[in-house]
What we know:
Layout: E1 8-12, E2 17-22, E3 25-30, H1 31-36, H2 41-50, E4 62-67, E5 72-77, E6 85-87, H3 88-100, H4 105-108
Antiparallel strand pairs: 1-2, 2-3, 4-5, 5-6
Amino acid sequence: MSSEWPSEISISSKSKTLNLVWDGEHATISHKALRVSCRCSSCESLRRKLNDIIPVDPDVSLLKIEQLGSVGLQLFFSDQHERGIYPWTYLKQMAFGAEQSGFTETLMKGWHHE
């Protein structure tokens, strides 16, 4: 049985990754991929307007995370963006999608195609 949330969560400023351990499996997600994949209403609106991945500074970094109980994480980025809530299922899909289902840029385009 798979855990709903990771047992370990940490930010690496040096490698600019969010590090997660889920059911004993280690995964990393780049800060840029996380920022580009934000699902807040502002980012979704821009994504729809552009019909593409939102532009993000390549040096964007994750400054802080806040766990929102059993829901997921709120992420705070160096570009002052802090509106996105990343549900555990979304983070797990980002972390292990490449291994399990072939992570593609469509995930970064948001959920409006689902």
